[in-house]
Design goal:
The complex is a heterodimer. By secondary structure, chain A is an alpha+beta fold. Chain A contains 12 helices and 14 strands. In chain A, strands 4-5-10-6-7 form a 5-stranded antiparallel β-sheet. Chain A has a 4-stranded antiparallel β-sheet with strand order 11-12-13-14. In chain A, strand 8 and strand 9 form a beta hairpin. Chain B has 5 helices and 5 strands, in the order ββαβββαααα. Chain B is of the alpha+beta class. Chain B has 2 domains: 75 residues, Ubiquitin-like (UB roll) (Roll); 88 residues, DNA polymerase, domain 1, CATH 1.10.150. Classes of the chains: A alpha+beta, B alpha+beta. Bound molecules: flavin-adenine dinucleotide and FE2/S2 (inorganic) cluster (FES) (2 copies).
Amino acid sequence: MIPAPFDYVAPSTVDEAVRALVDAGEDAKVIAGGQSLLPVLRMRLAAPTTLVDLGRIAELRGVREDGDALVIGSMTTHYDVQRDPLIGEHAALLARATDTVADPQVRHRGTFGGSIAHADPAGDLLAPALALDAEMLVAGPAGRRTVPAADFFDDFFTTAMSPEEILVEVRVPKHTGWHAHYEKFNRVAQAWSMVAVAATVRTEGGTIAEARVGLTNMASVPVRARGVEQALVGQAATPETIRAAAEHAAEGTNPTVDGNADVEYRQQLARVLTGRAISAAMAG
Amino acid sequence: MRITVTVDGTSYTDDVEPRTLLVHHLRERLGKVGTVVGCDTSNCGACTVHLDGHSVKSCSVLAVQADGCEVTTVEGLARDGTLHPVQQAFHDNHALQCGFCTPGMIMQSIDLLADNPDPDEQAVREGIEGNLCRCTGYQNIVRAVQDAAHHMRPGAGPEAERVAGVDQATGSRAASSVGGGGE
Ligand SMILES: Cc1cc2nc3c(=O)[nH]c(=O)nc-3n(C[C@H](O)[C@H](O)[C@H](O)COP(=O)(O)OP(=O)(O)OC[C@H]3O[C@@H](n4cnc5c(N)ncnc54)[C@H](O)[C@@H]3O)c2cc1C
Ligand code: FES
Ligand code: FES
């Protein structure tokens, strides 16, 4: 189908984009890669009056180093995240998760910031951002502010951003040399995660010194598997310790029931996939 | 809104409504009906074209977003009546039945080969995972892509789409001098 009519503006700076959102009123919407928004508009599930396209704002694209962190521009495409040498070296978990997103055509258009802002509980980049303690830099009419990932995701498709705010960039503390793996369970013809586990660990000798584990689609927002993280630290990375730690994966979770899976099945998936994710991270 | 898009080597300037999808602009305004629409959900890949050298689903891009860009459709691949090596390989390997998925499959296969000139079977299947075929069971499509890879020098990407004599900006990937079908 053809989307309902809307006005279109393509500003060249973040400030202009914020002004365009304010001027256009509450039915305005940002368009980034359009890979989630355009299907929604085509099915007429939404009908914004104005689209503010971030695609012509050069400062929103690319990855740079800033001290002990990487800064990823919100309009950096999935394709570029997959191949970026800085991300490969300092935040491999993001690259591995992005490899599993959608298909090549969607990865050419879809953006890192768009995925984060969209806040789909099945989106694959939320749990890695949470696990890596990312921070979101947001610009709005009142200026810029930083929101930690732990405070950013409020509910299904809902974030701490107001409709007049724009996600500018995401700051990810460097996890240089950490092992990483994203283990995803989905239907073959449908890339979306039923459940997925983002795991990254730092080892010293044969011992796990630090661990971060995030879960995709185990709630309306991404969640940290703190019990698993605590059970891993200080342990030798043997199949037994990994299996024992993974048993904690579903603790305290209350996942959504949908046509794919009920609560028990999702919790079982979380435990099994956590074990696989940590094992694969260690092997990688 | 007035936009200028270069499609298969020709520059077109048109007034379009912002809500016009690129695929509708190509088909209905420019008459490039080789690119088809197969779904409403961005899943099927039948509408795949190259936008500045990278494959995209043209049903999931607004025409206004392509302003100033270069688009290649399946109609822009053959040169002087000679098929592009990937088109020829689809023909030789019976990689289609009804043919509806074929324009998108061919455009995506060329994109895949630009990134990976010698893909194994698994890499081909992953490379075309955004393209659905209801007829063939994919076997002959995978065979055709690997056959095409063997017939092409590395990098079938943007360079292969250049119109002879026109100096256009190329994409960022390694490109070769493989002329579409010209060899
Ligand atoms: C066939 C298909 C399969 C897919 N499979 C997967 C998958 O397996 N895993 C996965 O994670 N994703 C998947 N996706 C979604 C894809 O990753 C999208 O790229 C992503 O969800 C949204 O990014 P975008 O840049 O396209 O955003 P858009 O579609 O442009 O925007 C999405 C939403 O976020 C808002 N927004 C975007 N950017 C900003 C910003 N900078 N500031 C404020 N608000 C903003 C928009 O207003 C809109 O509401 C799939 C999509 C398709 C079409
Ligand atoms: S028409 Fe199906 S993906 Fe574009
Ligand atoms: S040949 Fe009929 S859909 Fe592929």
